[in-house]
Amino acid sequence: GESVGLHLPTLSVQEGDNSIINCAYSNSASDYFIWYKQESGKGPQFIIDIRSNMDKRQGQRVTVLLNKTVKHLSLQIAATQPGDSAVYFCAEKKRAGSYQLTFGKGTKLSVIP
Amino acid sequence: NAGVTQTPKFRVLKTGQSMTLLCAQDMNHEYMYWYRQDPGMGLRLIHYSVGEGTTAKGEVPDGYNVSRLKKQNFLLGLESAAPSQTSVYFCASSYGASNTGELFFGEGSRLTVL
Asked: In chain B, which residues have their Cβ closer than 8 Å to the Cβ of A44?
């Protein structure tokens, strides 16, 4: 089975609220994690990444948190906007030097105006 | 820059027919990848290439072949299409020397096998 998964397949949030999308991974050797956003009919787009030697990384309106103790990754989106509606995927790189990413199944985020 | 371009965007095949999906990137990336995306399955790696003239198997390579004759192009072939290959196919590319894993994706090619 897949080592990268998601706690919730769908998430609905009110516009302006914060969103939290979760991801669990099982490979403790994974050293790099990425979040992608996929809008309907388009290819995935890079949002933010984090290395295993970090706990937190912030971007514009987005924050990724990594908890290696429980093998959990989360993406926080501040002040969610209608344009944030999409499917969000986490992906992991399972070993150093590898360029292969393993993707989770995705969480669909719907923003209610 | 166009980024990653896939052709065709849509195709319908009959079982047993063959076809080739073309991926072109203009970012001078060393690494290129073919993924398939099925409902509820996320993206699964079919084949990838770490440079011109090289190819390697990914997670689900059976029924597909690839070629990387030129650095900017990565072709995905189906020799004898099966209904199980109905999917959306995504090509991606990345910097080879970088230690990040950011992939740049194309818009996808939707294939239906009847």
From this structure: 43, 90, 103, 105
Flag whether residue A53 sits within 8 Å of chain B, measured between CB atoms.
Answer: no
Query: How far apart are alpha carbons B22 and B80 in whole angstroms?
Result: 17
pLDDT at position A1 over 80: no
Question: Is B20 within 8 Å of B85 (Cβ atoms)?
Answer: no
**Average pLDDT in the A83-89 region?**
96
Any B CB within 8 A of A43 CB = yes
pLDDT of amino acid B1? 65
Q: A65 near A74, Cβ under 8 Å?
A: yes
CA distance A77 to chain B (A): 20
